Structure prediction request, 246 residues.
Amino acid sequence: MARKKSKTKKNYLIKGYGFPVIVDEIELDDPLGDGDWVPRINEVKLGHAVFEALAISPIRFTGTHISFIRKFMNMTQEDFAMALGLLNHGAVSKWERKSSDFAGMKPGTEVLIKAIMRERLGHREFPIADIKAIAAEEEGEVKPIRLHLVA
Amino acid sequence: MKPLPSAELHRLIRHASNHGFRSIHARRRMEERQFDFNDLTHCLRTGRHNPFLDEFKNGTWRYRVEGRNIDGRAIDLVVAIANTIIIVTVINPNR
Prediction:
């Protein structure tokens, strides 16, 4: 019987960003035919979708979110600090060291980071309601990023 | 099948930064060694590859890509090329 070359899986958990990302439906491939089923996915498209989800949702940032955002924008800690108007990268390093815990930054800084991210994505507006939602968002429990990827 | 010529390998590795597969083993090692997808992508885009490492299985060759992440941390990848490119494992060369 011929080996099955691909299969789909619902609610697939991707952990490669240091924080949980759940894709609602994903196609898996076995490219070496050794039973190692891996997602058939364009990493750039996936990274872009994660970046956009973090930019748009009022979710509070963890250390790994900050590390992902910075690296996705191809910035060193020094570059990122400069983009935020900070004197040095000490604060960025401190946030990232929080790892999967909340970074502990002020809501105003999160708004600024999300504004920079939205600008990168080509968004021309940042509605006041979205800014208020970020300020009102409690840290609470770290939630996974949920994505619906359109083929 | 013989190992790929360097120019073709270079083209495939750069292409893999967007489209290649990451094996389950590579994902596990990536996490253990505290790298993430962005580090792998940066290494594939900017790293140097060796001519070849060894024959992985039945005409599939493995190659080593040596590079750094955006923060300058050294990272090596072992990639295999079958009908597509697969990252087989992730190595922290400083350990």
About this structure: The first helix of chain B runs from residue 6 to 19. Residues 30 and 90 of chain B are 6 Å apart (CA to CA). The interface with chain A takes residues 17-25, 27, 30-31, 36-42, 57, 60, 69-71, 80, 82-84, 86 of chain B (CB under 8 Å). Helices of chain B lie at 6-19, 24-32, 37-46.
